[in-house]
Structures are given as structure tokens and as C-alpha cells.
Amino acid sequence: MDKRRLLLASQSPRRRELLALLGLPFKTDASNVDEASRSNESPAALAARLSQAKARACSVNHVVVIACDTIVAHAGQVLGKPGDADEAAEMLHRLRGSPHSVYTAITLLDKGTERSVTDVAETQVTMRAYTETELAAYVASGDPMDKAGAYAIQHRGFHPASEVQGCFANVMGLPLCHLTRHLRAWEIDPPQDVPAACQAYTGHRCAVYQSILSAK
Description:
The chain has helices at residues 13-20, 43-57, 85-95, 132-141, 168-172, 176-185, 194-202, 209-214, and strands at residues 6-8, 26-28, 64-74, 77-79, 99-110, 116-127, 161-165. The chain is α/β, with parallel strands linked by helices. A hairpin with a 2-residue loop joins strand 3 and strand 4 (77-79). Helix 3 (85-95) packs antiparallel against helix 4 (132-141).
């Protein structure tokens, strides 16, 4: 196993838990970047640019930085983190019973050599027809407030999605098989069976991990 140190450029508990599934030691550090989108910028391009900015903004040297950014897009509009409960409810009303796309960009940056790679994973999510009572209770819980699109797909009480096409962990903020593929290309090989660990953690049976891991 490669001995280069890994640093996750995020303080997200969900990303920390997901990255730990690889069985590689890592530390965390996060820096603030301007997350405003640019004119005519696609959701995938926005996610890629922000993940690259987060990686470059990390001040720790001699590490391999893993930086991520997750974007939720519905009907051509980016849905960020809600500013308040009313905005969270509005987003969830908009998403209810309909499909949307979730993009997570991952950037690996070797702070010793400046070598970098960026990949964007896309997952199609269809939300179930949750009731007004369920929606209101979920908003009142406060869980939507720090999440793009105002929901956590893994929330066991709300369980918002009826169908997921693509990587489930991508919707949580860190597509593990995409990351594993690029780490292996850099001769950093996770000791764990990543697909098995991910499925055990999420409770979601994955149909796409083989194609992701074998992609060029």
C-alpha cells in the first residue's frame, strides 16, 4: 500500500464516514471557497470547478488531497443548501415525485508534485410522493439544512427516494468506486473490498460498481 498521506478537504461527517470505508488512514482539513455559479455553467462543470478550488485552497503540504463538491439539479436549476426552513420545504415540494440529477466531483491533488485529476459522477434520483406531513416533519428535524437539495438520501426516517440510477454514495457526497479507481491509478490501493463495504454501510444494493471500477 502506498504510504502517501491522504487529506480529505471536507468536514462533512458523511464524507468522513464514507472515506473511512476504504481502510486508508486520512486526516481532514477544510477551506472556504466561493461556491457561486458562473453564467451558463453546467451543474457538472460547477461541481468540477469547485472541487478543484477546494483542493487548491488546502494549505497542507506533502499530502494527496481529496476534495469534493456535490450539486443537485432539477429541471435545469441548481438546488443548493437551503437558507431556512421555508426554502427547504420549497425544494422538497419541487423535487417530490419527480426525477433529478446529483453530481459529485472529486479532485485528487498531490501537493508534492501538483499532479491532479478530476472526475464527475452523476446519479439519477427519483423522489417518492411523500406526504405533506412527512415533508413538514423532516424539515422540522433540521436535517435538510446543510444538504444540497435539502435532503439526505440515506435518512432512515424520511427515506426520500423511490429510485436511484447510478452510484448511491455519490448522492451522499463521495462516490467511492470512482475515487477508488483513481487512487489505484496512483498506486494507492485501498485494503478493503470497497463495493462490499459501501453496500453494507448504505444498505443499498449497487448494480454499477463493476462498470465504474473498470472504466478508463
